[in-house]
Design a protein that fits this description.
It contains eight helices and six strands; from the N terminus they run E-H-E-E-E-H-E-H-H-E-H-H-H-H. By secondary structure, it is α/β, with parallel strands linked by helices. A six-stranded mixed β-sheet has the order 2-3-1-4-5-6, with helices on both faces. Strand 4, helix 2 and strand 5 form a beta-alpha-beta unit. Helix 5 packs across helix 6, helix 5 packs across helix 8 and helix 6 crosses helix 8.
Length: 194
């Protein structure tokens, strides 16, 4: 297998670390060499959180550089736009349509761009956008939006959903497992946006 490079980006508190734990655990179970690196920028206060996940037969570095990511999973629209230079040509952006105002918007110094996802599509990027928050709420909790996005990633990934669900059973607490499974499957089966 050639190396696959993924990035998971979001805002602190959205569950991106559990998502990267699931992904890393899955890939190790499948026998791949896996490297994971996390960067937390004031993550407990709503700052950016970025996780790099690389897998393949042999992976030397945990970092993904600009133009290398096969998949960019964004828990928030503006974070997706911020990190899109890391996508390689032909890479895919999987993004929640949720909008979390950054500090310049909160203090009134800027406005949240209304058409950020359309602008990315207009640039010819492969954008798979879904309302992960609403799907998670239907599954039982807004906190499961991370699993909705992992389900959507699995839809495009080369491993069957059952393997993701098996890995999930090993990283999610039993009392939250059914809700997270339902959230994952709602993302996995979400209608294509293309």
């Amino acid at each position: 297998m050639t190396n696959v490079n993924l990035m998971i980006v979001g805002v602190g508190g959205q569950g991106s670390l559990l998502a990267s734990k699931l992904l890393g655990h899955l890939l190790v179970r499948e026998g791949y060499d896996v490297k994971v690196s996390e960067v937390h920028g004031m993550s407990q206060r709503g700052g950016s959180v970025v996780t790099y996940v690389r897998c393949g037969t042999q992976v030397c570095s945990p970092l993904v550089t600009e133009g290398e990511a096969d998949f960019l999973v964004a828990f928030e629209a503006l974070e997706g736009a911020r990190w899109v230079p890391y996508l390689k040509p032909g890479g895919r952006l999987i993004v929640s349509t949720q909008q979390i105002d950054p500090m310049p918007v909160v203090v009134g110094a800027a406005a949240y761009p209304d058409t950020v996802l359309q602008q990315l599509r207009d640039r010819g990027l492969s954008v798979d956008a879904l309302d992960a928050l609403s799907l998670a709420e239907r599954a039982g909790s807004a906190r499961a939006a991370n699993m909705v996005l992992m389900g959507r990633l699995a839809h495009h990934f080369h491993l069957p959903a059952e393997r993701w669900l098996d890995a999930m059973a090993e990283v999610v607490k039993p009392k939250f497992l059914q809700m997270n499974r339902q959230a994952f499957l709602s993302g996995y089966h979400y209608p294509d946006q293309h």
